[in-house]
């Protein structure tokens, strides 16, 4: 039974003005176009490729560049099967392009350092020969990292973590929570992937399963049958869910209702008791910061109103940046996702600009925060340096926690 029944304030999504949409598209296409030009110049133009290679590869670059905005625009309103056909190739190229950009930048940096520090007095070099040499190195590095990222994209592994909590009852030390996050069932990942995730979770025989948002990437009408697999999750204290930003892109209220019908407890700015009598702790959950629609929006104050501060408290919040407010409210452990661990290195460096923790276990102002790298992926079906995970979190009474 919930200790506190809560509502939330009205949060309606503002209708963007035309100029804002235009500004966003202009910036996005400018960055995308600049990256394509830079990679094209270093891999195709500067090496002065012989024969038909130059016009063929140039035309291919133009087509691939156009496929990104065109595939995204057409795919968003197409049926699910068509979205898979239109979006998947575009997203693969987006990931490959990012890795090619990083590879070309890295080889250019190496070229500059070598020319200044090693060969500064060695005389003139053949610029075409050197451009081809460094271009080949960049292309091989980009292709190799793309291949590795594609292989890793559909995999996930079980990651085990222990968290010491001072207010956890001694009798609950060893309580195991399995966390799923950012599964992104939708145009790319479907029922087969969901089934593998559920089978992995159930094999761990957890005490509690939590899903910290971004479970879906399409409307209930399109993927409801696929997501129904998560109704088969098994644990002593059931499955609890909080919304992520992508639930709202796909119909937030509809998904909350659908998940409840599957037997999943949706925590919307509320908390429940996990356990019985003295052997229990509080589990709270809040809407995502990007929630919109009537009655939706993060409200931690309401979720925690009237709670006993002597009871241990675990918070489900999609975004790690909720930790600062959580710490002010005395939360013992926050479980989050959203970042994907960066998904494709070195994108994790940019994620750090927006979130306090990119992945793993850390402490913020006395509150433990665990950030999952996610169980699926979004966009490019790739992962590099940020392996997907099903997380088994073991809670320990602080005095008995392992070093």
Structure description:
42% of the residues lie in helices and 18% in strands. It contains 11 helices and 13 strands. A hairpin with a 2-residue loop joins strand 11 (360-364) and strand 12 (367-371). The protein has helices at residues 18-45, 53-76, 80-117, 127-153, 191-203, 220-227, 245-249, 252-261, 300-304, 323-328, 348-351, and strands at residues 2-4, 156-165, 175-180, 208-212, 239-242, 265-266, 270-276, 279-285, 313-316, 333-336, 360-364, 367-371, 388-397. The strands form 2 sheets. It has a 7-stranded mixed sheet with strand order 1-7-8-9-10-12-11. Strands 2-13-3-4-5-6 form a 6-stranded mixed sheet. The radius of gyration is 24 Å and the shape is elongated. It starts with a strand and ends in a 6-residue tail after the last strand. The longest helix has 38 residues, at 80-117. It is α/β, with parallel strands linked by helices and 403 residues long.
From the N-terminal CA to the C-terminal CA, the straight-line distance is 35 Å
Low-confidence stretches: 1-12
Average pLDDT figure:
89
Largest sheet: 7 strands, mixed
Counted beta strands: 13
